[in-house]
Amino acid sequence: MIRLGSLILCAAFGFGAALSGCGSSSKGSGTSSALDLVPKSNEIAGWNYNPNNSDSANGPATATTEPATEALIDGAAADFFAAPSTPVLFAWQTYLNTTVSTANTATGAPDTNPEFVNGATLDLKILQMPSTAQAAGLYASLRAASLYAGKTWAEPTSPKIGTDSRLADTGDHWWINFYQGDFYVEVSMGPSYSPPPDFTPGNTVTRDLAFAFAAAVAGKI
Q1: What is the mean pLDDT of residues 11-15?
Q2: What is the reported pLDDT for 113?
Q3: CB–CB of 24/218 below 8 Å?
Q4: pTM of structure
Q5: Residue 124's closest CA among 201, 79, 183, 203?
Q6: Residue 45: left if φ>0, alpha if ψ -120 to 50, beta else—which one?
Q7: Can you spell out the DSSP letters for 99-152?
Q8: What is the distance of C-alpha 104 from the center of its chain?
Q9: 185 with 124: CB under 8 angstroms?
Q10: What is the C-alpha separation between 39 and 66, in angstroms, rounded?
């Protein structure tokens, strides 16, 4: 099991130099499929498959065509498959963590008051491309796509995830996109939605959790 505490130390801001020891450097061709990158339930401590999503309650949902991908997600499937991109495999997994506290917005520190330990959700999308050049090209082209262009991105992130990465606080979740090897990856983390409080923009606790999860996925490549 990957311990989240050690990942947060690797992913925390100010430890950019240390991140290379936490999975940001490529292992080359050791990973053959996008499915190899998807953490299993509780492989990253606390993050379990979200039982509320019927498509991925028991494991990742996959697709190999634009229509099949669009059937799974309501969003950027067309942008993923826009020429010259020819994804080999799309993998999607959602997670729920019922132990995350997001309440202390003044300091960014966890709040142990049971009223505020409301958990968090995470959405992982991985596109396996036929080459590293296509993964890099998709990462670059999506920056101008309508879903992405309206966000304020920190690019590259600090510390960097994978070969290149960007981060946005959208107001309702943290969104980290990166590419490494033949893979393009999106990690978005938001609130559990019930009970309150909802996602708080700028919360460093949830930001670091998103970084830690993304670093764990990059470490599998």
Answers
A1: 40
A2: 46
A3: yes
A4: 0.81
A5: 183
A6: beta
A7: T-----TTT------TTT---EEEEEEEEE-SSHHHHHHHHHHHTTSHHHHTS-
A8: 23
A9: yes
A10: 24
Identify whether the C-beta of residue 207 lies closer than 8 Å to the C-beta of residue 169.
Answer: yes
Q: Residues 6 or more apart from 148 whose CB is under 8 A from it?
A: 76, 142, 177
Token pair for 142: 């999506």
Torsion of CA 15, 17, 22, 28, to 10 degrees: 150
The Cα–Cα gap between 100 and 183 comes to: 28
- Look up residue 106 and give its amino acid: A
pLDDT of residue 122: 92
Question: What letter does residue 38 receive in the DSSP assignment?
Answer: S
Q: Can you tell me the distance from the alpha carbon of 111 to that of 50, in angstroms, rounded to the nearest whole number?
A: 23
Yes or no: say if 46 and 2 are a contact pair by the CB < 8 Å rule: no
Give pLDDT, residue 173: 86
